[in-house]
Amino acid sequence: MYKCWLIYACFRGCYVLDWIGCVYLIRFRCAGNKLLRLIALALKLEETFFERMGGLDKPTAYLRLLRYPGELGSADEDVCGASAHSDYGMITLLATDGVQGLQICREKFKQPQVWEDVLHLDGALIINIGDMMERWTNCMFRSTLHRVMPVGQERFSAAFFLDPKHDCLVECLESCCSESSPARFPPILSGDYLKERFRLTYKSNLESIV
Question: From what superkingdom does this record's organism come (predicted)?
Fold first, then answer.
């Protein structure tokens, strides 16, 4: 697997690249808030639901800048710029440079998996639903399984991850549950959920290396 160059910029101001990075963070944050309002309406909730429940007053939000080298592997080598995964959190807003390579799998639990290229649209953002939102909506909104494949050309992207504050309670929404579709997940604090996901991921990576 190719390694990406990662540069972090924390929304709370701990690590900021420069004033351009600040502008991007603010604009990503505004776009993310508007998107969450639309999601709330789609779930038959009040438009400001995610704000009222305290998830966005001090969110865990950060910007990750990524570079994919793009070199192609040999014919018998399965090489990914980023292997198949879904994001852990609430939503991800992604801006790309137009170079192809990003793919999604609509039916992530079906085998064999079918992968589709995500086409670039100038001026548009790509939105990924995260695992936490899937949990919140009782699987009504499915997280996006995606990967990046090398295409023989260097590729850059900027991913903005917008998650609620650490002590925000994530439990299946009433509008997403019924007698025929009861809650599939127990309530959990956002911070505890993310910590456990990262712990399992890095433990798995270390075990595969050993």
Answer: Eukaryota
